Fold each of these.
Amino acid sequence: MRPEGRGDCLVRPMCPEDTAEVGALEAVCFSLPWTDGLVSHELTVRGSFSLVARETLGGPVLGYMVFRVAADAMDVLRLAVLPGGRRRGLGTELLFEGMRRARALGAAEAFLEVRENNSGARIFYEKAGFRLVGKRPGYYVETRETALVYARGLMDPGGGPGADASGRPGE
Ligand SMILES: CC(C)(COP(=O)(O)OP(=O)(O)OC[C@H]1O[C@@H](n2cnc3c(N)ncnc32)[C@H](O)[C@@H]1OP(=O)(O)O)[C@@H](O)C(=O)NCCC(=O)NCCS
């Protein structure tokens, strides 16, 4: 399915052939990147789902997301867009497609952790309707940074850029 959005974006389940591209994206986007091995291992984890975003069919992977669904909860583990692809709606497309899929699997609420100093990601998630529900001091052991815990209901359309979790980002 081609999600609607402000740009031309294709979000698809990740396949093993995407692993090297996603590993390279991890290295660029995160201070503690997952290795190619971790990225491909995640594809084998029960209840875990990985999505990739492209702007054209067969084009380069510009963004990706990993989430897990257990019982009625969705846990967003990774979400990143290459620097050159940011602020074009790809992160939003990935997030809302992930939420739509998690809801179809029975999840009623989504959770995620963000580094306290990651102000760009915090604004991004708040715009997508997530609210701050807790703090975990020292969660990132290598830097002792605090993790902020965000949550969002998947059943209600509240919050965000006029969006719901049906896969339709807002205006
Ligand atoms: C967070 C991230 C995934 C956002 O991806 P993106 O494709 O740029 O997001 P979108 O284009 O869908 O942004 C939607 C809105 O979020 C907000 N936003 C996104 N990035 C922002 C930033 N750096 N600063 C302020 N607001 C931001 C804006 O309101 C934006 O709308 P606008 O461009 O019309 O102003 C991307 O910046 C990224 O990969 N960061 C590094 C990895 C990371 O921190 N991941 C999240 C923690 S796991």
Amino acid sequence: MAYRYQGQSWSEGEIAEMCCDSVVESTECHECGYSWRVEPDASNYKCQDCGEGRVHSPLVALGMM
Ligand SMILES: [Zn+2]
């Protein structure tokens, strides 16, 4: 089973790993595709690259946090 959000997807294993990590790879900015390491509870962070888009922790994007 895969978890999907705005064209990205993660395996169940990847999600399980993220739940134990102190930093996770964010969702991609939908303006420019940039992503970076964020806290697992990161929500609505302004894109560090273009300053326009927003990124989240995948756990937040998927409604698990
Ligand atoms: Zn961006």
